[in-house]
Amino acid sequence: MTEQALGERTARELRGLARVLVRSGYADRAGVTAALTEAVREDAPSAEVATLVPDLIDQALADLAEDAATWPVVTGPDRLDSVLAELESLGLVVVRYTSDHHAARAVLEAAAEPKGLVFFTDTDVWHAVDFGMLELKVWHPDTANVAPGEPLLEDILTLLRERDLPAVFDEGRIEVTVDWQRRVTL
């Protein structure tokens, strides 16, 4: 079954999923393949998975390569990686592209003397790919959310802004404005 035979809506949704999975830059080819295979089996059970999934990935990679040719040498995700590395060097636990807050909490609880936790989920990254805004969650070592005016929050906001990553604290999370231009190798 070709992509056209899937129906316009299903084909668009599967292409969109392939796009965010590939552009996230965190999943390897096996992870992208597994997620797309699950989606195809659920949304298009009569589709030929062995053909459709590689085609979706290859098209997403080709589109990404075309876009990446116009990107600056240092991108927003590169600057974000620098901020996250600095936070780790200061004793914060950083969890990238996690499935949910439970998984992030487990990493925090396993850490020796953490100063806090900064994390974002896979769906946060997908939102950044499509809309240019990444949500960072920041917790104290006891898993309490940071609050306005706290030094931990202010230090993170300052660091983000110094790296040309506009950020505001809103409703318990930091909203970072970032063009999601992560270079990907699958």
UniProtKB/TrEMBL annotation:
This is DUF6891 domain-containing protein. Residues 11-183 form the DUF6891 domain. InterPro entries: DUF6891.
